[in-house]
TrEMBL record:
This is tRNA (guanine-N(1)-)-methyltransferase. It catalyses: guanosine(37) in tRNA + S-adenosyl-L-methionine = N(1)-methylguanosine(37) in tRNA + S-adenosyl-L-homocysteine + H(+). S-adenosyl-L-methionine binds at G113, L133, G134, D135, Y136, V137, L138. Transmembrane segments: none annotated. Its EC number is 2.1.1.228. One of its GO terms (molecular function) is tRNA (guanine(37)-N1)-methyltransferase activity.
Length: 229
């Protein structure tokens, strides 16, 4: 069973996205354990502060090294982590291939930054992997941690009712997914393509591949360059 621990100053931001739907069912099935840890619980200060001003001139607060290290070391007494991840806008771009890789791990620890980030010594000496959702800045790492957790957990065997579903998602084969349709076959004159109603599995798969290829050319042509299609 996979274990994912998340360190945050705002645990309430993670309780909802990780406590419903597929994420909740995965935990109920015993396929993953998700622990959310309030960094303030590891502060020794009277008012549970975990941030302070940065050295040098400039605005913004920084999460201090001491409570972060206390939390990491406390969690490491319970288990060994395959990766200690820091959510950072200048980390490695999160993509499906990385989600696939992380889904093969046993235990993950995710650190959510806040304010101007964390003391650099944490990144230098404790973090093993830094992940970014994209070239923009959020108020904290919590939403990113939820995204990474969701993308990883849904790949675990038994989480989805149809395990082949995740294998046909966008980016798994280097292409975006083809269009999908459901019932009714006609609505206000808008019809489902005849090929999907034909029952001819080989022809349908060929059509889906062609649609994926065309959609990728239009929407994400850089994927074709990287895959040399």
């Amino acid at each position: 069973m996979m274990r994912i621990d998340i360190i945050t100053v705002l645990p309430e931001l993670l309780e909802s996205p990780l406590g419903h739907s597929i994420m909740q069912r995965a935990q109920d099935k015993g396929l993953v354990e998700i622990g959310i840890h309030n960094l303030r619980d590891y502060s020794v200060k009277k008012h549970k502060n975990v941030d302070d001003y940065a050295y040098g001139p400039g605005a913004g607060m920084v999460l201090q090294i001491e409570p972060i290290v206390r939390c990491i070391e406390a969690l490491e007494t319970e288990r060994k982590y395959d990766e200690i991840i820091y959510m950072s806008p200048d980390g490695e771009r999160f993509q499906q291939a990385m989600a696939n890789e992380l889904a093969l791990k046993g235990n993950l620890l995710i650190l959510c930054g806040h304010y101007k980030g964390v003391d650099e010594r944490v990144r230098e000496h404790f973090v093993t992997k830094e992940i970014s959702l994209g070239d923009y800045v959020l108020s904290g790492g919590e939403l990113g941690a939820a995204v990474v957790t969701d993308a990883v957990v849904r790949l675990l065997p038994g989480v989805l009712s149809d395990e082949t579903s995740a294998l046909t998602d966008s980016f798994q084969d280097g292409l975006v997914a083809p269009p999908v349709y459901s019932r009714p076959s006609e609505f206000r004159g808008m019809k489902v393509p005849d090929i999907l109603l034909s029952g001819h599995e080989a022809k349908i798969e060929k059509w889906r591949f062609e649609q994926s290829l065309e959609r990728t050319k239009l929407r994400r042509p850089e994927l074709l360059k990287s895959n040399k299609r």
